[in-house]
Amino acid sequence: MIERKLAKVMLNSEQKVIIVEDFNAHHSWWNAKISNSIRTKVLIKWVNLHKCNLINTSDVNTYYSYSDQSSSVLDLTFASKNMCNHIKNWHIDKNVNTEFNHEVILFTIVIKKVKLIENSLNTSYNLQKVNWKDFDEHLQKMKDKMIVKM
Question: I need a surface site. Which of 8, 25, 68, 98 has the fewest CB within 10 A?
């Protein structure tokens, strides 16, 4: 249950956090068609306590039930206050066909602006010499440092 998961996650104000989850919660904050909130009390309390922001584009459905032809906004993206300005272009990818009723959520994380300059050495990289195993291990280590498990 999401309440138990959220109870385990305590954030401090310095952490940059993104949480993407099928919360299965219904609220007018992210879906204007909702008049009676369902499973939102603990979620909204937690979001407000940790000063997180909703990243979803309001009223963009993330779930479609093919059996009863209904749709809803169940998959939510929240970010800590100091992270939300780094998230751009949140959208669902309708071109990806999953075997599930949930849409694929995509967004871009902009860490910092970097001024690009032309390579004055005109050196190309030999990708045949890359140690892909080391590269993969490095990415895995970095991923584990960035993800807060719920």
Answer: 68
